Amino acid sequence: MPKFLFECNFYSDSGSKPIEVANAYIDLNKQIKEQNMIFIWVTDGFGWKKMYNALHKASANIDFVLNYNMLKNTLDNLLKD
């Protein structure tokens, strides 16, 4: 059975902190993979609309970047695999 590490957050506004967090989670994803674990970042909020580039970069480098609706619809499938 795989082990998962979940991080959940919500950003109502844009700024440098969410961008820094996204970059840090790219590094965290690499470390978690080395431990044979799966990192799932659940993030949501209107703030991401102004930070599309940071979210796009994170999505390209983190296996699972989901919003809350996506998590609700896919969690069972993730746990089955």
UniProtKB/TrEMBL annotation:
Residues annotated as domain Restriction endonuclease type II DpnII-like: 4-74
Entry's Gene Ontology molecular function annotations: DNA binding; type II site-specific deoxyribonuclease activity
Upper classification of the organism: Archaea, Methanobacteriati, Methanobacteriota, Methanomada group, Methanobacteria
GO BP terms in the entry: DNA restriction-modification system
Name of the protein this chain belongs to: Restriction endonuclease type II DpnII-like domain-containing protein
Organism: Methanobrevibacter smithii DSM 2374
Cited InterPro entries: Restrct_endonuc_II_DpnII-like
Pfam families the UniProt entry points to: DpnII (PF04556)
Chain segments annotated as coiled-coil in the UniProt record: none
